[in-house]
């Protein structure tokens, strides 16, 4: 069966378990550093020290692991680019999400953000965009496409991205981590649309990094536009993607028929 994005000859043939292996190795490295550094998730954006220990350093460790594994597999090209993307109108939700993130930055309260904090925020946001997109919507998508159709690829990769946040229940969020998981599924669906509609994982990386930057840099703001809009975005993403993929499937079947 031909998937929505054909896989070129690679150093290591894509298998589901190989993608899942990278995912769990990343989880292990990231959360091990989190625990060793004594993270309190709610306080990550509090100071330059918390940003370095709980944002930059765990993500730097995860980035190193991710780059090594993707290089070993030889999956950079299919992980970064689509050979067949969705129609451009599927970019609507990613554009709305980016607009909200930018607006939140414009109206946010940055009185407590120092220049060194800005440096760590930017570095960490670049790393989170690279790491979580490459792990979940990069190499994992390549692996899952070796066995599943695109709806299954979206569902499984996005669910794994969402569950990645569950350990935060023990790291300062408590039961709120369950809400974070649900929110991550919906927002992850929008990151998936960013990849598929532009034909490049870079779009998802930029959007993801921008979103985290606005969340952590304006956490002290009394009016948090991104936080207020996030539930609506998550719901819209979770509903829109299966509908878009169903339409894509019907269009492909019509062309073949």
From TrEMBL:
One Pfam entry name: Rce1-like
KW NADP (keyword) present: no
GO molecular function, one term: metallopeptidase activity
Segments traversing the membrane: 16-34, 54-76, 88-107, 113-130, 151-171, 177-194, 201-219, 225-246
Alphabetical UniProt keywords: Hydrolase, Membrane, Metalloprotease, Protease, Transmembrane, Transmembrane helix
Signal peptide: none
InterPro entries recorded: Rce1/LyrA-like_dom
Keyword Transmembrane helix tagged: yes
Residue stretches making up the CAAX prenyl protease 2/Lysostaphin resistance protein A-like domain: 116-213
Protein name stated in the entry: CPBP family intramembrane metalloprotease
Organism of derivation: Dactylosporangium fulvum
